[in-house]
Amino acid sequence: MTEALLTVRGLTKHFPVRDGFRASGAVRAVDGVDFDVRPGETLGLVGESGCGKTTTGRMLVRLLEPTAGSIEFAGRDITHARRRELRPLRQDLQIIFQDPYASLNPRHTVGRIVAMPLQVNRITPPGGIKKRVQELLELVGLNPEHYNRYPHEFSGGQRQRIGIARALALRPKLIVADEPVSALDVSIQAQVINLLRELQRDLDLAFVFIAHDLAVIRHFCHRVAVMYLGKIVEIGDRDDIYERPQHPYTRALLSAVPDVTQTDSSGRIRLVGDVPTPLNPPSGCRFRTRCWKAQERCATDEPALVPRDGGVQAVACHFPGPDGQDSDGGTR
Amino acid sequence: MGRSESVPSGEPDRPEVPEQRSGEDPYLQVRDLRVRFDTEDGLVRAVDGVSFSVERGRTLGIVGESGSGKSVTSLAILGLHNAKRATISGEISVGGRQLVGLPEEEVRRLRGRDMAMIFQDPLSALHPYYTVGRQIAEAYRVHHPKAGKREARNRAVDMLGRVGIPQPGKRYEQYPHEFSGGMRQRAMIAMALVNDPDLVIADEPTTALDVTVQAQILDLLADLQAEFHSAIILITHDLGVVSQVADDVLVMYGGRAVERGSVAQVLRRPQHPYTWGLLSSVPSLHGDADADLVPIKGNPPSLINLPSGCAFHPRCRYAGRNGDRSRTVVPELRSAGEAGHLVACHLPADERTRLYQQDIAQVGVAR
C-alpha cells in the first residue's frame, strides 16, 4: 500500500458557545475523526447538515484551527503550522468552494482570479503567467480568450470551472472540494463532475470530496466516509459502502435517496426525528436516538470505528450488518 | 363548490373518487398560459404558452432547470405576480373559476383557502417575530372571520399535530428559530393546509432538507393528500423525487412545455431529447459508477433571447436531422403515441423511438 498523502488522526473542532461573557459549552462540530488519503485517491465525506463534513474540510486546508488531533500532509505535521510555514504547502493543497457566486471576486477579471495563486507565491511559469492562465482556462473547458471578462459574465457552471482553474494553478497534489456541484443545475452538474473526474485521472490528483448527495459521491470517489454528528460512522471502499453498508445510518441514508429508477418506496428505512444538536450529543452511540436497533448498551458504550472481518471497511456500531443477526454484535 | 367547513377529523362528506381519471373536470386547468416581464434588457418570456391540468387527489410534478419557468408558472396560478410588472394571458381555472383578470381582492380570498403554497425555504417564509402557532392561527382566521381566537388556536394545534410535530401545544408557543429545518417545513405544511385547500403548490419543498428528513416530508405530503384529497403541484429539479411522489410529469424548458405524461411515460419511455439529457446526466445509486455521466452540452437559454424554433436545438444532439425545422419552427406539443403522452419535438416518432433505444436506453439511469 502506498504511503498516505494526508493522515488525519483524532481531528476535533469545538466551537465555544458563550452565554454573555461566560463560556457555556461547545458545539462539538467534529469530534475525533481519523482517515487517510493516498496520492491520486478520492475520498468522499458524506453526511447530513451539521455532521461536520464542511468543518473537517476547512480544517484540512487550515481555514479553521483544529481544537485537537493532528493533520499530516506529505509527511509534515501541519496541524498548527503558521502562515509562513503553510505557504509552500498551500501550493499542494487547494480548495474548491460550493458557491460559485460568492467565491470569486466580482471586481477582478477571470485572468486575475486564476493568476492570483501564482502571484501570491511569486511563481513565474515558463512562458509567463498569462500563458499559464490561458492553458488552465482551456484545461477546464473555458475559452482562453475570456481572460479579460468578469465573473458576472459567466453562468454558474462556468464560474465553478473558474474556481477549479484557480485551484489547479499551482499544480496541487490534493484538492478539498466542498459541495462543488450542489449549487448547479442537473445538466451542468454532470458537466462539472465529468470535468473533475477527467482532471483527477489525467493529473493524478487526490481529492477530499465533500457532498451530501450520495449519488454524486458514488460517481466520483474511490473511498467513502459517512459522517454523523461529528464522527465517522463508517468508512470503506465505494462498492462496499454502496453495496454492503454495515452501519444502520449508512443503510438508512442510502435507502432514503429518491432514485429515478424506483417508483416504489415501500422498502425504505424510515428514520424518525431530526439529527440531535451537536451542542449536547447523545451519550454512547450518537445515532442511537434514531436507530431502530438501539439497545441499552448503545447508550453507555461508545462504539469505536473498527475494521470488519479484517477488511478495509470499518464500522462504528455495536450491531452492524443487516437486520436479524443483531446478537453477534461487535466484540468491543 | 361543495366546500365543507374545515372539519378536522375524517372528512366524511367527501365522496370517494376513484384513482383513475373520472368524468369530473380537473380541479386546476391551465391553458396557453403566458407570463411576460418587461425589463430594461428586453421582454422576458418567462412562460410561453403552457397548458396542463391537475385533478383532485393527483400530483403533477413540474420539472425543469433554473429559468425554465416552473416557479413563474406556480406564482401565476396563485396570483402572486406584481400586476405592474408581469403581463399574464391565457386561462387559469381553479375549481371552475377563471383567475386571469380576476380582481386582486378576489384572488386574495381564494389564495390560502382554495389554494395554498409550500415554499422551499421555511425560514424565510415564516415570520421570525411571531410564534409559529400564531402564524398558523392567523392564516386560519383570515379565511374564517367568524372563528374566535380559541377556535383558531385549537385548529392550529390540531394541524401541528397532524403534520407530525410532537407536543403541538407546546410547539405552538415557539418561534421559527426554535424549530429544526424539518420541523419548520412541517409547520409550513401545517400552515398551507390549515384551511383545507383543494390545490397545494409545493415549490421545491424538500430541496433545503437532508435526505432522511426529505423522505419524512415526502411521506407526509402523500399521507395528507390521501386524507384531504387535494390536487398537488410539486415543482422540483429532482427527478428522483418526482419519480417517487408524482402521478404525472410536465417537463419545462425555456418557458415552454417540452414533454408531458404519466411518470411511467415520461421517466421510463421519455420521448424528448431534453428529457433524455436530464435522465442521463443524473448520477444514480445504481448502474455503472465508473461510467462517465452524459451531460447536456451548453447552458440553459436566456429567456430574453430564446433560440429560434425549438429552444433546445442549440443543445440537442439530433437537431440537424430534419433540415432547418428545429431552427425555424417552434414545435407544438402533440401526441407521442400513447394516450396522455405529449411531446414537442420535430423528430418523427419512429426515429425518436429508434434513437432512444440506440443511444439513451443503455446508459445511465435511463436504462
UniProtKB/TrEMBL annotation, chain A:
It holds the Pfam family ABC_tran. The keyword Endoplasmic reticulum does not apply. Signal peptide: none annotated. The keyword Repeat does not apply. Gene3D superfamilies: P-loop containing nucleotide triphosphate hydrolases. Residues 15-254 form the ABC transporter domain. InterPro entries: AAA+_ATPase (IPR003593), ABC_transp_ATP-bind (IPR050319), ABC_transporter-like_ATP-bd (IPR003439), ABC_transporter-like_CS (IPR017871), Oligopep_ABC_C (IPR013563), P-loop_NTPase (IPR027417). Keywords: ATP-binding, Nucleotide-binding, Transport. GO terms for molecular function: ATP binding. Belongs to the ABC transporter superfamily. NCBIfam families: oligo_HPY, PRK11308.1. This is Dipeptide ABC transporter ATP-binding protein.
TrEMBL record, chain B:
One of its GO terms (molecular function) is ATP binding. Its main location: membrane. It is a peripheral membrane protein. Gene3D superfamilies: P-loop containing nucleotide triphosphate hydrolases. Residues 1-25 are annotated as: Disordered. CDD domains: ABC_NikE_OppD_transporters. Residues 28-279 form the ABC transporter domain. Signal peptide: none annotated. The keyword Calcium does not apply. SUPFAM superfamilies: P-loop containing nucleoside triphosphate hydrolases. Residues 11-24 have a biased composition (Basic and acidic residues). Keywords: ATP-binding, Cell membrane, Membrane, Nucleotide-binding, Transport. NCBIfam families: oligo_HPY. Belongs to the ABC transporter superfamily. This is ABC transporter ATP-binding protein.
